[in-house]
């Protein structure tokens, strides 16, 4: 169990960190329209205020 705590768990943490770093850094190489945040708009949804009676 000590081998897992000393070697394997820290290695997994570092690997997860680098995978996340690569995923976030990959946005640099995306086309400009894909690198922007997704637009927030409701398509085909009509919101009306709720009327309480």
Observed structural traits:
53 residues; mainly alpha; 53% helix; single chain
N-to-C order of helices and strands: HH
* Average pLDDT level: 81
The secondary-structure class comes to mainly alpha
For the secondary structure, the number of strands is 0
The amount of beta strand, in percent, is under 5%
Commentary on this structure:
With 53 residues, the protein is an all-alpha fold. The chain has a domain of 27 residues. The longest helix has 24 residues. It is elongated and about 65 Å long. The protein starts with a helix and ends in an 18-residue tail after the last helix. The model has no long low-confidence stretch (mean pLDDT 81).
How is the secondary structure organized here?
Elements: H1 2-25, H2 32-35
Summarize the structure.
This protein is mainly α. The protein is 53% helix and 0% strand.
């Amino acid at each position: 169990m000590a081998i897992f705590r000393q070697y394997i768990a820290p290695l997994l943490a570092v690997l997860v960190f680098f995978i996340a770093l690569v995923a976030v850094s990959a946005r640099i190489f995306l086309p400009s329209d894909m690198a922007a945040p997704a637009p927030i708009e409701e398509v085909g949804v009509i919101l009306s205020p709720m009327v309480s009676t």
